[in-house]
Structures are given as structure tokens and as C-alpha cells.
Design a protein that fits this description.
By secondary structure, the chain is mostly helical. The protein has one domain. It has nine helices and no strands.
């Protein structure tokens, strides 16, 4: 693959997905909540899980597999409703969360599931969102130059999206650390969980309505 022919498409694609990355959404809400609670390792697990899902969607699109989401209504609907159920379950769990007083000297992260739990949540949230697959099916092919190896070029373009996502997530995690002092109070943590839970339920409802 001639990288000189990819320079223009890479720059254009970086601009498009950069704007998408900066747009607040479910990923932003999950990363901020997890990091603000002092769960830095789990927050990075969420980040890497989300980017794992992005890489899988991009690779599948470049390989032609995710075209099934647009060609097969049944495949799209099955994945969509699996995503709806997952988001509604997650939102209700957040709303039902009960925080007890944190023992002196103990951080909330000490009782956290850690990196692996965050990675599972981030990956599942991304892969169960069929709109990510449809986005790649619609947006990725026009940025692949004629004659370029489709799979290699697609993975390269997707890697740009992943890199931008990692950089922006680092900014979010750094910002969330400023909230840790306030969030030592159980009432503040409950408020954050309720805000995030309502946001997640909202995303689930939008997915259910096909918006």
C-alpha cells in the first residue's frame, strides 16, 4: 500500500472522526463517571474496551462483514435490541446503586472490579451499538483510494479513529480527577450515578426508537 496516496484520505478521515469523538455521548458519560469515582484503572479499561470495539467494527467493515447490518434487516434488529436491553439494564443498575460511606483512607477504587471489568463494559457497549457498524459501512469506503488494499487501508483509517479516541479519553480522565474530592461524599456519588443512569437510559430509548 502506497502511504503517499493515503495521506489525503487519512487527513480528511481524521477530521470527520475527530469531530465525532468530541461529540458528547454514551462513551463520554461512562468514561467520566468511572474516572470521577477514582477508578482510574477501570476507566482506562472502559477506554480500551471502547477502542477495541471500534477497531473490530472498522476491520469488519473493511472486510465487508458489517454490510450484513445494512443488507439484513433481521441482523440489524437483533443487534439493535440486544443493545437496547444492555443499555436499559446498565442504566437501571446505575440508578439502583447504593454507595456506603468510604472507610477513612480507602479509595472507592479499592472495591472496584478493576481494569478487566471496565474493558468488558466498554467493549460490550460499543459492539452492541449497531449504529457504529452502520457508520463505518457508510463512511469508511469513500476514504479508501481506488486500487488500495481494502482491508489494510480500512484498518489504517480505523487506527486513526482509535488514536484520537485514546487522546480525547486521556483528557476526559484527567478532567475527571478534579472532581474526586467532591465525589468522596456518598451523596455526590449517588447524584453522579443517577445522572449517568438517566443518560444511559436515554441512549437506550433512542436506540429502541431508531432515532
Amino acid at each position: 500500500m502506497d502511504l503517499t496516496t493515503m495521506a489525503g484520505p487519512l487527513a480528511s478521515f481524521a477530521l470527520v472522526v475527530g469531530l465525532l469523538t468530541l461529540t458528547p455521548g454514551l462513551d463520554t458519560a461512562l468514561i467520566l463517571r468511572t474516572a470521577a469515582l477514582g477508578r482510574r484503572r477501570r476507566a482506562w479499561g472502559v477506554v480500551l474496551g471502547i477502542q477495541t470495539g471500534t477497531l473490530i467494527w472498522g476491520t469488519a467493515s473493511a472486510a465487508g462483514l458489517s454490510v450484513l447490518l445494512t443488507a439484513s434487516r433481521a441482523a440489524y434488529e437483533t443487534l439493535r435490541w440486544a443493545g437496547v436491553c444492555y443499555l436499559l439494564w446498565m442504566g437501571l443498575q446505575l440508578l439502583r446503586n447504593r454507595h456506603r460511606e468510604t472507610p477513612e483512607g480507602e479509595q472507592p477504587a479499592a472495591r472496584d472490579g478493576g481494569w478487566w471489568a471496565g474493558w468488558r463494559r466498554g467493549t460490550a457497549t460499543n459492539l452492541l451499538n449497531p449504529k457504529v457498524g452502520v457508520f463505518y459501512v457508510a463512511v469508511l469506503p469513500p476514504f479508501i483510494p481506488a486500487g488500495a488494499p481494502h482491508l489494510a487501508a480500512g484498518v489504517l483509517l480505523t487506527s486513526v479513529h482509535v488514536a484520537e479516541g485514546l487522546l480525547w479519553s486521556a483528557v476526559l480522565i484527567g478532567f475527571a480527577r478534579t472532581l474526586r474530592g467532591w465525589l468522596r461524599r456518598p451523596a455526590a456519588r449517588r447524584l453522579l450515578d443517577r445522572i449517568t443512569g438517566v443518560a444511559v437510559l436515554g441512549f437506550g430509548a433512542r436506540l429502541a426508537l431508531g432515532d
